[in-house]
TrEMBL record:
Domain named GPI ethanolamine phosphate transferase 1 C-terminal: residues: 412-866
Protein name: GPI ethanolamine phosphate transferase 1
Location in or out of the cell: Endoplasmic reticulum membrane
Annotated source species: Apteryx mantelli (North Island brown kiwi)
A GO term, aspect molecular function: transferase activity
Amino acid sequence: MGIPVFVFAGLLVHCVFLASIFDIYFTSPLVHGMTPQQTPLPPPGKRLVLFVADGLRADSLYELDSNGTSRAPFLRSILENTGSWGISHTRVPTESRPGHVALIAGFYEDVSAVAKGWKENPVEFDSIFNESKYTWSWGSPDILPMFAKGASGDHVYTFCYTAESEDFGAQDAAKLDTWVFDHVKSFFNSSRSNQTLYSALNEEKVVLFLHLLGIDTNGHAHRPNSREYKENIRKVDEGVKEIASMLENFYGNDGKTAFILTSDHGMTDWGSHGAGHPSETLTPLIAWGAGVNYPQRVASQFFEDNFLKEWKLENLKRLDVNQGTLPLEYLNNSAHFKAESMFTNAVQILEQFKVKMTQKKETTLSFLFTPFKPLSDSEQINLLKKTRLYIQQEKYDEAVSLCKTLINLALEGLSYYHTYDRLFLGLSIAMGFVGWTAYVILVIIKTHTNLTKAAQSHDKESTILLYGFAFVGLIIAFFLLIQTCPWTYYVYCLLPVPVWYAVVKELHVIQDLAAYLLSLPVGQSMGFLLICALGIEILVFSFFYRSTLTIGLLVFAGWPVITQLWVQAKTTALIWILLCMLLGIFPLMPVVGREPNIPLVIATGLLTLLISCSSLSSLCKSKNKYMNNEDLKVQFYQMLSIALSTYVVSSTHDSLQNKQGLPVFNQIISWTTLVSSSVLPLLSPTFLFQRLFSILLSLMSTYLLLSTGYEALFPLVLSGLMFVWINMEQEALQQYGLSLKPKLAVFNFSYATDIMQFRQLHLDDVRRSFFFVFFIVTAFFGTGNIASVNSFDPASVYCFLTVFSPFMMGGLLVLKVVIPFVLVSCAFEAVQVTTQLSSKSLFLIVLVISDIMALHFFFLVKDYGSWLDIGASISHYVLVMSLTIFMMLMNGLAQLLTTKKLELSRKTKHHST
Ligand SMILES: [Zn+2]
Ligand SMILES: [Zn+2]
């Protein structure tokens, strides 16, 4: 396979792997095509009023103020005298959209929306609004339209403030709620002079939905413990009271109105929501009016939390519900009515189950189809018959409990059929992945080692092989065809065929490899595999726990001790151990940007100056004959720029603290430093350490400007370790008797590429590549979780600009992230050339490492939990997938930075050959 073909195949395979997660994990669980079910008994109410106080925590509503009074006196009196109450448990993600979907449409919104964007309705669904005769709703433009859009016909009406005018709540978000209450009142007033509206309002099956965003907005702005948040609850309580009495008047106290007050999600103490903390998942639920139970006095009730005592509600029955299921205990009706309602509920869900099963059955060959055993056709009929019989015999409790069993089974079955293909698709993708990785390993062995004998060509055998695989492919395609699978399934299932064909074609390489492995002592080869597996696990874990990097670095610190290197070069090994431990501190520190520490940044600047002074003096002392004044001048400029950066950081933050803004002079210096830092290293000599040091100085001056705390030290320690690494690799090479040990001090990058004769790969090169990947990951997670953008503090770009400009800020932050990478990549470039490795073979090893990691993350992709968890699991996968491409780019940049030298044209330079 030629290089372009290889690269193309690699890209194709990775694109398919990447896209596959959306077909495997993020598909819609919704079912369409059921017939609506109705209870045979008449409903107790004609209309429902639904108040959703967005972002209202259960405890904020129920608890008493310090003086023992409730901040929601009307709602408190409702739950004490007329209605039922409890805690409604929401699911993660605790966001407004899925919260409202669960309340109004009765299902947990599916994560397939992840792949389709959030704004519009990503999937079609039915809702209580759509099933109503008329629905009128008031509130935020972010929530209301999504239920109106899904509704068929013209019977769901929305009244929203415009998104821009949401600003009127800027001073006091409670105005968003008074807007809603006022509009509801004037709407009902206007109906008195509008006959059509009046009669519409008096129809049966009417829903009024009041979405109250004020509490959520105040919670984000001022946190739930603030006066604003609590004051807003008081306002909502008053509003609810007024609306309730206005409606009772309007309908002449007909007792046909049911009221529900709840919230879509809670809020953490620090004013956020989305995840699964109890403060986010516990929301209040108060219901009263038509068909709703009166308060039930109880002597004692048991709950694991202490809320009842805190809220002084021990003697009023608390009825907890899960968002989305029918809570029978809230109903004030005959046991017969409850049993019938439950039966209808069960039949509805069973209907969904049946449709889902039929769909799956139709697209699966009958002999391959494994039905959901616990709910077979006969079992369904049996359960339904029994329930009917119980209802006829007036054994309502038994009927209800049977219905509950049926519902649970049907829900289980729904999820069974929803994830039916997941195993088979996942295996297919894993097959492809493993095949591809195996193929890359074979390519490495074949082209970069001397393990294999000359390839023998057996034309006949390879043709048979080709036909064999083509046949297998045809059979797979045929099976997919008769099951009418979507076209993407063909890609996932057929991809492993050519990949494995390529693997099996290299059978002789596998044989040679097996022979070689068997010739090694068993302990040695097993130990090698074990270390490889362990190393990759450490890398995978570091994506979740940064502290894993510290463990890895400690193991690295032990490397010279367990090998011969310690005896060979004591001082270098000692420095290596020290720096490994020092670098290991960084992943243990909190994520950057939490606590600005400008003195530390300034100290780092001074330390850098000190180091460069000592290096300069040692250079002068050694009287390097290759040095000339020009080169000294370049280093002097770089030191000057470090000094300036240090000054700018300190003066900018001083001036910002005194509210004097960013001085123009500082801004000019910052931008000049940024530009010059990319050019200055190219003017410095190309001797290994001088060039690397020059790159460090230049990047350091920019990095200082972008630092706000301890992270300023990170590139310095990292580069220290990189310098030692280059030396250590030389020593390690000597240990294997591979090298003539070129003198590192006079090693020149610019001659490296043409003289170099690449050697064959050795087992130790696997370790080298692993070190590289590990250092890259350390550069990534060393000072924060770069995978989540909000771990960034805008304060870090204040030396460059203070006006908000997402594009510029983003660019600068990316630069800050990239600088440690460049340092690692340049060091690795040095390791490559001094150990005579070809970068191609090395990248193949890196490809293998990152593919094995990607396979890990493939199985760790989450389709449940908060958006943050889901997003992180996807971004890990994408990150690892793009790791190789990213490292190739970095390698190119490193080659450019290390080998290119700009000559100032006005001087005639004498080449020091
Ligand atoms: Zn919300
Ligand atoms: Zn919110």
